[in-house]
């Protein structure tokens, strides 16, 4: 493994393109650092963004640098079934949108471990912090490892050098701009990686003379949506579904702090519903085609006798075959975009967890927000460094990206996914049971890696597929063991009272909404109102989390709102995606046509005095 | 028909239907999903529509497109 390719594929103009891309994306990220004034901005971008912005940036985060290489690899070997991993996310949406997201959004939960403290107590928070941190830095390592491998095969650079170089670039803009820079750069990178991935596919189809000719060159076994249920062991539909569809997607929506922070960056929970539709029903299938398409085209080129390549190099070789010099540079840029857009999210997430779950509760409980922002920026640098340390582990232990990725996604998150799921859905799930699930489940997962024991523990659950399937079927083992531990322990220990669980479990989402608003929730349907902003230095913000605003009675009527309701004022130009906006609490009605806000609210929203805004009721 | 290619659909969409049903049931029981409101009805329609659309897509690539003979593919 890790032998440099005998032939360097790129030409000087390609490297100029990719260098220009690096510079542009870092400058783009640095530009948005002006929108970061506090930790809420650094971690959640001010909780103000529109659905389409988060959907595009979310898909860029989902598509890691391993994705093009990994899915083209399996696309080359197994065909269209490479899309399985991207098409099994929808099933989790009802639980995410109707249970988990309302709870964490309205409880103002900053991190997943923080939820564990509120729901179960301090010991579970500590255990959850350790698991989530390990998951995130291991995931950062997988992404850096992948890009290092790609740059090695293209340029002959050592894996570590390529990984370190990109880690430095990502860290620069994350330190400066936090979540806002992450979201805005991911928007750009999401567009680039989808365009390039689809471009390679369409160029290939055009090369063959049309879809029919391309389709005819693929073997029949490559034309199915799924691989066989239990074969091949390294890519069976059952194994992929357990590892990716159940545990990995469950981890993405329930415990991946990076994705949770992205959801919490939306202006409202309702906006998350639009975002989920755009993300999972539209962009994810496009991403599945974009990442696997290189492998399908590569297979057809090989069948046509035009290309020689291994499956591992299918994407790079195919893109190189189809693209003119310079254009190939954009392919390299897409690969780095996929890396940077995932790594930046994870690095920002590690920083959020360290500040919220380690630094603040254990070292500086009374720290000011300004100090926490400083610590967050320092932690960002350390997160990237620890991710790089994992690259060393992967270099020594794994000869395939798919194996390294499956190891991380199938083994670490199972106890957390089970604990969150049972925690939100089952009021009887006790604090002791949660701790046992997290710690006992992690130990059980660790035991399954010991040679000999894996046959004993996972073998019976492998449906006859043998050791090659263990990396995937370990997810089913984790699900059963962790679920069993949680249920049995719950039945013999004491649960929390209903009052203690208000706003934290299913059935109490409306309680969470009331706590968020600080009063009864107004869900009457209303419309947006257009008003002109006016600064009022005398306006007092009673709640520093939500500044006050004075709007006219006619606007309140249009919005079906009243004094005390939560409103959202936004720059009417849609392409800002909510970048210039602010949540406010409606005060008593004021003069016609004017929305009066305090100077702090004006600065927070990045409005100019006198500009027109749209105002809508949130609740 | 190779049933080894059909069972994954049964597995994935069977378990998926249970997951979706659990989420919707939780939303209804808590009152967070309010089917008396237009928003609630729309959300339920989207959840069901999304499920059906994904199912239709995989069925297309299991029962029809793999068997399209050369020269007649769309």
Please characterize this protein's 3D structure:
The complex is a heterodimer of chains A (619) and B (74). Chain A has 619 residues and is mainly alpha-helical. Chain A has a 6-stranded mixed beta barrel with strand order 1-5-2-4-3-6. In chain A, 63% of the residues lie in helices and 5% in strands. Chain A is globular, with a radius of gyration of 25 Å. Chain A has helices at residues 12-31, 39-44, 51-62, 65-78, 93-106, 112-120, 122-155, 159-208, 211-217, 237-254, 257-264, 269-303, 314-322, 327-363, 369-397, 401-411, 414-425, 431-447, 453-457, 470-492, 509-517, 553-559, 599-605; strands at residues 529-535, 548-550, 566-570, 581-586, 594-597, 612-617. Mean pLDDT of chain A is 89; it is low at 1-6. Chain A folds into 2 domains: 51-413, Sodium/glucose cotransporter (Up-down Bundle), CATH 1.20.1730.10; 525-617, Barwin-like endoglucanases, CATH 2.40.40.20. Chain B is mainly α and 74 residues long. Chain B has one domain (12-65). Chain B is built from 2 helices and no strands. Chain B has helices at 3-30, 38-64. The radius of gyration of chain B is 17 Å and the shape is elongated. The model of chain B has no long low-confidence stretch (mean pLDDT 89). Chains A and B meet through helix 5, helix 9, helix 10 and helix 12 of A and helix 1 and helix 2 of B.
Descriptive terms for the model:
heterodimer; A: 619 residues; mainly alpha; Sodium/glucose cotransporter; Barwin-like endoglucanases; 2 domains; six-stranded mixed beta barrel; 23 helices; 6 strands; 63% helix; 5% strand; disordered N terminus; B: 74 residues; 2 helices; elongated
Q: How many domains of chain A?
A: 2
Q: End-to-end span of chain B in angstroms?
A: 22 Å
Cα gyration radius of chain B (Å): 17 Å
Helix content of chain A: 55-70%
Write the layout of secondary structure elements.
The complex is a heterodimer of chains A (619) and B (74).
Chain A: H1 12-31, H2 39-44, H3 51-62, H4 65-78, H5 93-106, H6 112-120, H7 122-155, H8 159-208, H9 211-217, H10 237-254, H11 257-264, H12 269-303, H13 314-322, H14 327-363, H15 369-397, H16 401-411, H17 414-425, H18 431-447, H19 453-457, H20 470-492, H21 509-517, E1 529-535, E2 548-550, H22 553-559, E3 566-570, E4 581-586, E5 594-597, H23 599-605, E6 612-617
Parallel strand pairs in A: 1-5, 2-4
Antiparallel strand pairs in A: 1-6, 2-5, 3-4, 3-6
Chain B: H1 3-30, H2 38-64
């Amino acid at each position: 493994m890790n032998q440099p390719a005998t032939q360097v594929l790129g030409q000087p103009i390609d490297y100029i393109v990719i260098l220009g891309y690096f510079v542009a994306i870092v400058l783009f990220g640095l530009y948005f650092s002006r929108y970061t004034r506090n930790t809420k901005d650094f971690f959640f971008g001010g909780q103000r963004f529109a659905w389409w912005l988060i959907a595009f940036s979310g898909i860029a985060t989902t598509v890691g640098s391993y994705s093009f290489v990994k899915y083209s690899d399996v696309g080359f070997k197994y065909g269209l079934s490479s899309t399985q991993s991207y098409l099994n996310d929808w099933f989790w949406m009802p639980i995410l949108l109707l249970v988990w997201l309302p709870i964490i959004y309205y409880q103002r939960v900053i991190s997943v471990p923080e939820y564990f403290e509120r729901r179960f107590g301090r010991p579970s928070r500590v255990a959850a912090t350790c698991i989530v941190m390990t998951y995130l830095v291991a995931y950062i390592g997988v992404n850096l490892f992948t890009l290092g491998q790609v740059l090695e095969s293209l340029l002959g650079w050592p894996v570590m050098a390529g990984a370190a170089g990109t880690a430095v670039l990502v860290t620069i803009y994350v330190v400066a701009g936090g979540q806002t820079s992450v979201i805005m750069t991911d928007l750009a990178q999401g567009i680039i990686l989808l365009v390039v991935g689809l471009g390679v596919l369409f160029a290939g189809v055009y090369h063959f003379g049309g879809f029919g000719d391309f389709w005819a060159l693929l073997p029949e076994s490559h034309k199915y949506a799924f691989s066989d249920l239990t074969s091949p062991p390294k890519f069976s539909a059952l194994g992929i579904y357990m590892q990716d569809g159940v545990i990995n997607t469950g981890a993405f929506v329930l415990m991946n702090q990076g994705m949770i922070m992205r959801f919490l960056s939306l202006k409202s929970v309702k906006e998350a519903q639009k975002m989920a539709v755009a993300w999972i029903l539209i962009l994810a299938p496009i991403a599945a085609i974009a990442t696997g398409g290189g492998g399908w085209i590569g297979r057809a080129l090989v069948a046509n006798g035009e290309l020689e390549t291994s499956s591992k190099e299918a994407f790079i070789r195919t893109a190189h075959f189809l693209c003119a010099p310079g254009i190939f540079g954009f392919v390299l840029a897409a690969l780095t975009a996929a890396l940077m857009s995932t790594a930046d999210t994870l690095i920002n997430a590690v920083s959020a967890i360290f500040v919220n779950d380690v630094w603040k509760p254990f070292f500086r409980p009374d720290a000011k927000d300004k100090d926490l922002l400083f610590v967050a920026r320092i932690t960002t640098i350390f997160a990237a460094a620890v991710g790089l340390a994992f690259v060393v582990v992967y270099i020594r232990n794994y000869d395939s990206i798919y194996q390294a990725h499956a190891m991380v996604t199938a083994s670490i998150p199972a106890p957390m996914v089970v604990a969150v799921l049972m925690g939100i859905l089952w009021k009887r799930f006790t604090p002791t049971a949660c701790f046992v699930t997290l710690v006992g489940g992690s130990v059980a997962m660790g035991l399954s890696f010991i040679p000999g024991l894996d046959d004993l523990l996972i073998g019976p659950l492998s449906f006859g597929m043998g050791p090659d399937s263990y990396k995937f079927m370990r997810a089913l083992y984790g699900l059963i063991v962790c679920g069993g531990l949680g249920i049995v322990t719950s039945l013999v220990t004491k649960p929390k009272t209903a009052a203690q669980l208000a706003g934290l479990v299913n059935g109490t989402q409306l309680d969470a909404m009331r706590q968020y608003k600080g009063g009864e929730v107004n869900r009457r349907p209303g419309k947006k109102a257009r008003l002109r902003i006016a600064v009022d230095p005398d306006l007092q913000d009673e709640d520093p989390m939500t500044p006050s605003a004075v709007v006219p009675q006619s606007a309140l009527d249009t919005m079906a709102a009243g004094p005390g309701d939560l409103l959202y004022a936004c720059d009417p130009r849609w392409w800002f995606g909510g970048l210039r906006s602010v949540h406010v609490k409606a005060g008593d009605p004021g003069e016609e046509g004017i929305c009066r806000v305090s100077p702090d609210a004006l600065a927070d929203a990045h409005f100019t005095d006198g500009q027109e805004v749209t105002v809508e009721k949130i609740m | 028909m190779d049933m080894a290619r059909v069972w994954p659909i049964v597995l994935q969409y069977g378990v998926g239907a249970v997951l979706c049903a659990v989420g919707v049931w939780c939303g209804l029981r808590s009152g967070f999903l309010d089917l008396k409101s237009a928003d609630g009805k729309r959300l339920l329609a989207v959840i069901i529509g999304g499920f059906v659309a994904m199912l239709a897509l995989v069925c297309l690539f299991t029962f029809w497109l793999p068997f399209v003979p050369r020269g007649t593919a769309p």
